[in-house]
Amino acid sequence: EVQLVESGGGLVQAGGSLRLSCAASGFIFADYTIGWFRQAPGKEREGVSWVSSTYDRTNYADSVKGRFTTISDNAKNTVYLQMNSLNPDDTAVYYCGARLYSEGLFTPGPYSGPWGEAGVDYWGKGTLVIVSS
After folding, report:
1. Whole-number percent of the chain with pLDDT over 70
2. pLDDT single digits (tens) 38-75
3. Core-most of 33, 86, 120, 125, by most CB within 10 Å?
4. So what's the pLDDT on residue 109?
5. How far is 42 from 119, CA to CA, in rounded Å?
6. Which residues have a Cβ under 8 Å from the Cβ of 106 and sit 6 or more positions away?
């Protein structure tokens, strides 16, 4: 059974940090590119980042570039999203998704909106992040 399980969400003050985890099972982790998405109340889902451990590549939405970092640990079949300098606009449910590699995910942006969502094969159920002002 394919599973993506997010964890690490919670309540944090503006300026603080959180680290989210996405634990994968049931598929060949190294064959897939893992993305983080988020959806705030009343807004469309937004692509946040992508990581390919096979091709050693990452990419980020403009809204998080310089503040968020995504890392893939193949030994643990887990992808992390380190989020620093959080602000209330980062409040959302954060999801991870897995899809096959696409060069287009890693070309220079700018990126916004549901970037890369169309090709996602597997989704997690999400973890809630709330940033208080």
Report:
1. 100
2. 999 999 999 999 999 999 999 999 999 999 999 999 99
3. 33
4. 80
5. 23
6. 50, 52, 55, 57, 58, 59
